[in-house]
């Protein structure tokens, strides 16, 4: 609201007051419309619509008046930055799409398109239009609305015509090679250069040109442009038309007539272009034609040289690589142009190195030919290998043939002589294949073997050729050898003209044998136990003598006295022995025994063995396997005991009879409950009893714990679970149904 509108508003409000309104009852609305922004009476510039702003004024009566703003702000448009098109050059009557690039539309605005100038002829509305192009046109676009019209942006679209006609065609000139000038002729000789021109009134736009064709429009293309040069072989009609982006015009035609002249060949064909010196090839004309009274002439070196023949074909035998030429001469139009062909000739020299004498049993790979890669032929040849076993003995001819890349072939012959080979030995034998050290063996070769070509028998120790040579002879078919160790002997035929024969051999095993038998300890008593003999070296031999059976010595069988023990060792053909003595003495040990009946706690039935006259410590071996004396807890059976002393003498006491022994049980008397996993419990098991009572006391007779199970284990604690100290404790064991009682000590070790 400007000052004028406010003044009018105040006058109205004052008149209203005079008509009876309360002087302090004043209010009103200021309705405004603006573009982009509006500055109100409150001094604020608003850039968007507003219906909430208020301002207080004082009227003429001195009362406050409140004005409310009702503002509508419309936006202005911005101009496009550019105009895009689907194409800038199109054919007449084609559609094209145009688009606004950039810019923006304000309130109640739109894009308006013109085809002459802004504000002129409207051709469409919107950010994109599609229009039909009929001529070169510049299009304009701008935003138009209630607030503003922007500046215009434009784009020019060029149109191309569909058809551009030619006025005429002409033969302007032909080139005369003799006078080296262009002249105008109606009729020309074949293959003469002729210039054709197209005539037109208006220039062509970009994208258009003139195309030339033979025989019909659109057929074989012969050139592009306002003028072309042609070389007709015969009378020919040429066609031309304008072609371009939007199509082609109608055709114009012109005919060039030719005389009955000659046409040069298109090529020369040879029956062979590459061959060996001395060969022949036939040359034939390809294409071309002879005019009236003309002939084909052939030349060497050049078409201006000496004529070497006439006609459509010529057979030549060049001695070296040669270029041949041909052309038509004479007639209405004179000589044609030349056509040429190169004929290559090659020399093939062949060589092969001589072959050595070949032995019958030795096939060889043939080589030595130059150039390499040729083919061998002849008797006994398979895949370049000469096998004398096939060809046989005597003189032979091998042929070497080679064909090069030019198909030239040459051959050479190589003589070869096949001799009989050394015959392999048949059999070989030894008089002794196994001998003792110091003895000899005779090795004999089968006398049916034959020697050829001055060869001899060569005898070796170790291997043929590389071992030790023993003998070489043409007559001796055997050798005598005395090896110190096992040896291999070989023989083969060597020397002469042929390689050595194969080897045959024989092995002679040599044994060196010594044996020794250690001294035997003396034996005390013929009741000593049987023992296995040992002490022979090398081991594995055989023991023999009185009392010896299967390598064991039985003193009882041998009897008292001195006995020879023979040790025999055999290796191959060799036998060695050694002898030692064994003396069986009378046993000096005297043994008696006594049987005592004690309580179970004291050992039950006890057998005492009483020994005397022995040397040193006595050893006891009871028949139940026990090794202690006396024997405790003897059972109701017969016992025997073998008593030995420090001199390894033995006395056997047998037939000790025990009966009516008490029912005692052997119980361990020590354990160590220290939680180390070893002997931590006193374990007892009585599977044959139906009632068991075990009571344990300390040394003062106080009961510590009691068990009433057939099997139990004690961990060294009281019944209250307290650990007992290390020491000796005592037990009473009662068993039913045997009604037996057993007592004894039990020691705890921690």
What is the overall number of helices?
Answer: 3
Indicate the mean pLDDT.
Answer: 85
Helix content: under 10%
CATH-assigned fold name of the largest domain: Immunoglobulin-like
Class of the largest domain in CATH?
Mainly Beta
Output the structural class.
Answer: mainly beta
What proportion of the residues form beta strands (DSSP E)? over 45%
Shape: flat
How many beta-strand elements? 69
Total count of domains: 9
Biggest sheet statistics: 6 strands, mixed
N-C termini distance: 118 Å
Plain-language structure description:
- With about 750 residues, the protein is mainly beta.
- It folds into 9 domains: about 70 residues, no CATH class; about 80 residues, Immunoglobulin-like (Sandwich), CATH 2.60.40.10; about 90 residues, Immunoglobulin-like, CATH 2.60.40; about 80 residues, Sandwich (Immunoglobulin-like), CATH 2.60.40.10; about 70 residues, Immunoglobulins (Immunoglobulin-like), CATH 2.60.40; about 80 residues, Immunoglobulins (Immunoglobulin-like), CATH 2.60.40; about 70 residues, Immunoglobulin-like, CATH 2.60.40; about 70 residues, Immunoglobulin-like (Sandwich), CATH 2.60.40; and more.
- The protein has 3 helices and 69 strands.
- The strands form 20 sheets. Strands 16, 18, 19, 21, 22 and 23 form a 6-stranded mixed β-sheet that branches. A 5-stranded mixed β-sheet has the order 7-13-12-9-10, with no helix packed on it.
- A hairpin with a 2-residue loop joins strand 54 and strand 55.
- It is flat and about 165 Å long.
- The two termini are about 120 Å apart.
- The N terminus is likely disordered.
